[in-house]
Design a protein that fits this description.
Length: 86
């Protein structure tokens, strides 16, 4: 049965988290918040070929994805693509 399983989030890093070390520190904390909501970060990094400069791929159910405290994210101005797994 097809299910919504992955979320590809494009965003812009917040100014206070600039640079490789800032990204890593912020994402370590953010990954914990995502896991507390019942989801898992599959990968994150810099987005190329799109206007946004951050990318985060999250795995989880729609119910758990909605529990993620987005105000705590190290990025802003998000755009999300949902992947349906068959």
């Amino acid at each position: 049965m097809p299910e919504m399983k992955y979320y590809i989030v494009y965003a812009n890093w917040k100014p206070e988290h600039q640079g490789p070390e800032g990204f890593k520190k912020a994402m370590d904390k953010w990954t914990k918040a995502i896991e507390d909501a019942g989801c898992k970060v599959k990968l994150w990094g810099a987005a190329l070929g799109v206007p946004e400069n951050a990318l985060c791929v999250i795995k989880g159910s729609p119910e758990n994805y909605m529990k993620i405290p987005n105000a705590e994210a190290p990025y802003t101005n998000t755009r999300t693509h949902v992947v349906i797994k068959f």
